[in-house]
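Cross-posting from the chemistry board since nobody answered there.

I work mostly on the small-molecule side, so proteins are not my area. We synthesized S-adenosylmethionine and want a rough idea of how it might sit in this target. Sequence and SMILES are below. Is it possible to get a predicted 3D structure of the two together?
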Amino acid sequence: MAIFESGIFQRLYWRFMHKYYAQDLLIDLKLAAKREAIDYIQQHMADALMFKDRDALLAFAVRDTQVPGLILEFGVEKGASLRVLARQAAPRIVHGFDAFLGLPDHWTGTFEQRGKFSMSGKPPDVEANARLHVGWFNDTLPGFLAANAEPIAVLHVDCDIYPSTKTVFDQVGERLQPGATIVFDEYFNYPGWRQHEFKAFQEWIAASGRRYRYLGFATEKGHVAVRMM
Ligand SMILES: C[S@@+](CC[C@H](N)C(=O)[O-])C[C@H]1O[C@@H](n2cnc3c(N)ncnc32)[C@H](O)[C@@H]1O
């Protein structure tokens, strides 16, 4: 059509394609990460269920876990995911751990820098069956684990970065009984995914010799559930 051959469209096309799209790294980094996540799903998660979003995956994780034990969340921030866990688990207690000071380090492979998600130390209001443990994980966990001897039934990991996730597995890993369910909020499907929650979990699996199978994943973002064997 003649209109698309006119000067203005030629100039707009050139500007959009060459000045913006062709030089935009983010789009292709995200698509590459998505491709890697799809390859990972096809190679390792053939028997996993699909869920439309994180809340559906979290609710299923609580419902489908057959072993008794603690329900723990690492990374609470405003309390949105803790609310889903608490409602599904009621009247059982769910425990949320967070310093409410945001990420203690930069989340490489994303835009999120140290301090992102800070609530200035102020915890949110939570459901009546939720208990908050306010502080850095390595400060709050030893006392909590000494006072609560039970194994873990459900673990929600939403602390995003490698060092925090490593602290979680170093401290609670031995409490993850066969049949326990772990839900990761940011397992894959973003440019830095192999360096954070995924890496800390895979390192713990390799070091402990434990086995697991993939239970499900959400078809948006990077939410993944595994079942310990
Ligand atoms: C993405 S937010 C959690 C969001 C929340 N689960 C939700 O979606 O409703 C991550 C949280 O992890 C917390 N966090 C990360 N590493 C931590 C650590 N080592 N100790 C305590 N809190 C930590 C941050 O303070 C932040 O609030």
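Reply from a structural biologist on the board:
Welcome over. Reading the output above for you: The chain has two domains: 1-44, 46-228. The radius of gyration is 21 Å. Happy to explain the token format if needed.
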